Amino acid sequence: MRKFLFLILMLIIASLAACQKETTIDFEDVPRDGDPATGAIIFTQKKEGAPPCDSCHTIDDSPGKGPSLQGYKDVAGKRVEGQSAEKYTFYSILLPSKHVVDGFSNIMYKQYDGKFTAQELGDLIAYLLTL
Asked: How much is the average pLDDT of 96-118?
């Protein structure tokens, strides 16, 4: 009987884990008409103790801790087959371990999720897709 109850409990836990959201904001809630000018400001500012994007990423192809974002709009939609540039960027920010660019380590700050509003993400994504 104990084994049966343990098995049921494990199934319930597994089901609950499968139902949890990957991020605090759903991709569908991020505005597709973000403001690139506001996104450029977000790119250079700390957010609730989190480092700014430009502390690791450059936009002029100079070396940084993370990949340069020069030409980002041309490659973002091709990184993961079947995934739009917007969705790839969304996950790259909120779940950076999901997409690690070849030649770079998995060192990106991992707590951006919960720090940005859906609008701020939309603005930041809009900016990145101008690069």
From this structure: 94
